[in-house]
Specification:
CATH topology of the largest domain in chain A: pyruvate-formate lyase- activating enzyme
Strand order of the largest sheet of chain A: 2-1-3-4-5-6
Structural class of chain A: alpha/beta
Number of domains of chain A: 2
CATH architecture of the largest domain in chain A: Alpha-Beta Horseshoe
Oligomer: heterodimer
Order of helices and strands of chain B: EHEEHEEHEEEEHHE
CATH superfamily of the largest domain in chain A: tm_1862 like domain
CATH topology of the largest domain in chain B: Alpha-Beta Plaits
CATH architecture of the largest domain in chain B: 2-Layer Sandwich
Distance between the termini of chain A: 56 Å
Largest interface: A-B, 27 and 32 residues
Structural class of chain B: alpha+beta
Number of domains of chain B: 2
Amino acid sequence: MKIPESILKKVEKPGRYTGGEWGEVIKNPENVDIRFAFCFPDTYEIGMSNLGIRILYSILNDREDTWCERAYAPWADMEEQMRAHGIPLCTLESGTPLSECDFVGFSLQYELCYTNMLNMMNLAGIELESKNRKNDDPIIVCGGPCTYNSEPVADFVDICLIGEGEAELPELMDIYKKHKKMGFDRAAFLREVSKQESMYVPSLYDVEYNGDGTIRSFTPKYDDVPAKVRKRIVKDMDTAPFPKNLVMPFIQTVQDRIVLEVYRGCIRGCRFCQAGLVYRPVREKTPEVLNEQAKILADATGYSEITLSSLSISDYSCIEKLTDELLPWTNERKISLQLPSLRVDSFTKELMDKISTIRTGGITFAPEAGTQRLRDVINKNVEKADLLRACRVAFEGGKTQVKLYFMQGLPTETDEDLDGINELAQSVIDEFYATPGRAKKSPQVTLSAACFIPKPFTPFQWEKQFDMEELLRKQKYLTGKITNRKIRYNYHDAKVSRIEAIFARGDRKLSAALLEAAKRGMRLDGWEEFFDYDKWMEVFEYCGIDPAFYANREFGEDEILPWDNIDIGVTKEFLLRERHKAYGEKTTPNCRLQCSGCGANKLGGERTCCPKMQ
Amino acid sequence: MLPENAVNIKIRIKFSKTGSLKFISHLDLQRTMQSSFLRSKLPIYYSEGFNPHPKVVFSPPLSVGVSSLTEFVDVKMLADVAPAEIMEKLNASFPKGLCALECYTPTAKFTDIKWGLYEVKFELTGEIPEDICQKAQAALTAEEIIIEKFTKKGEPKRVNIAEGMRFESAALEGSVLTVTAKLSCDDASFVNPKYIGETLTCAMPEVFTGAEEETCRMAVYLADGETLFK
């Protein structure tokens, strides 16, 4: 059922709930075998910006037998109305209750959205725990970066797709269709799914724990269920399906533009960065293909901005060629080109002259740490001189404002490293005044500091997060150090970072906490208005869970980690090697300079910079 | 500025905004319109500057939740395109709920719009008095129609809107009462169509409280309230 107009009139931003956008796919339910509700467990504005969903929406709908529709987390005002009027959560396209779909898929992008997933299931009247769902209930499937350690949601999801969904989802649909024809049996279906490459069915594994809460064993329940699940990748990005049409949101979204995915993976290997490792190996698209896809998307959408997307755009081997192909026609059609995530070593006058958005917008760099020592520990491979040179280029071009991203609480960090953040900012101010031809204005340096969160599948996965007291002390310490009023210092809420750390390295025992949080009506945890640290602490206490066990404990190197059953390509041995190099303050060259044997090359892939497997 | 000698043709497009689109704010309508124009590939004139965008001007905004059969947008074209072609290309690019109805060279200015004809449909749930149409007419043609507005500071203010309200008709069909009235669009005496419902609820709370209402702008007029704006 569609949301009645009387309710739409009562809520903020009703355009979130109407559907009917340009580009939405409408099919006749009589003509399809599979109904798939693709959910993003956060608001419409955030979910509609996600490139992965856009790709998978189009792949599923390209199948004649499948109708994929969208659903997002309602804002609190709408949730209240829905609960008051007994309206279940429905898809935007047809207003079909999620509970009537064959599949309900969730893209899990960040840990704080777990409660939204449960709340959406609850709003749809779907049993939260997989063991309580009946044969005809929807299959809950999830993907996205959080799936690399999906143990905290293990009790709720039926299937986790590990890696890139382009190939996995169609295969899953085929298996489902086969089972539906045979007379669907949930257990038999899940059992067959578990045997496929990259499809992880948490309910088919038993976990045993040691007395101290660490994992003793992790075993498949049946002989034919694989002990380890390997990530799947798209081998050739050039021929990978890309969405030729996008759903055009009626209301302003976070990423309201064409997102052109240039390559996957990252050559850098920063030791805190999960994305840089789980998306390996690096696989590029060719500039010719990208140029063609950009044109198709510009025609189909009517967007007037294109952003070149990747983890570090200046590391694209053909960036020069690509911008040369794109700029003539985008300039002519008044489409602006954006290059986010520029590294300081790639920020040049030529680039600034060429790309108008760089000319006009603010500039942001991410040195991540304040001293060279700590930057070597995290393998950032950026030097102070690079940063100052890049800033000088920007200042010569008339800019006066620079934003710098840092991380606080990194392993081995001391107060000296925090001093370094302030000193680095001061050097940028000095560089401004030393630049001939700078603007006759006062400079402004904004420091934005996140708290370090140890993430699975990084060399820092064993590290502890500093406890709350120390995180807050660090923030206070730096606040006290910064006396120059041209330097502004913003920092993330340490409480939010701690909850993220708990779930990032969580195991199955945390499912109980999530279930309890859902029962208490907690959701929209990514939103300041709703995030409540004390409530979380109450939940953990109620469930007998010690949050410090997950967030503030150094995990043992010989310990079985909750995510050890997942194989992302990059090996645990490599991560350990990198961890020890970090303590030796030794950097690792990027993949293009030299292969460091991370192991991702065993996954194959075209246009990688990896040596081929022997 | 336009380059010298460039073709520069001002075009007015009359369009309707219904269905899902009625829940889209004016600002979001502008965004939707802009991407529709780009998809249509019509030779629209772009503003200059750092962030070029199609130069379009809209007739006065609608409240969110109100549909309309008579909205206008002015654009400049850099080539002479036949009206039929403009309509065809736009309608192929518009989302469901937007529809180009007419396209021509404008003469009147948007500021000439002084009156709007609105149709409000009330879905009544309770007992309906036999003479409801007469009663509605009486309420909407009273010498004084007092409603409560809020000032910018949020303080309530009582205002007489009788001057800006011209009742046209009331008709009952089943449980649906349809009221039409011309309301002032003038800046000084602007009357929001939601005041029709508020006035009726005030006069007959037992009939109108909680009634669903659906509002549509049907037409807009010049100062005389009779001549259709074009």
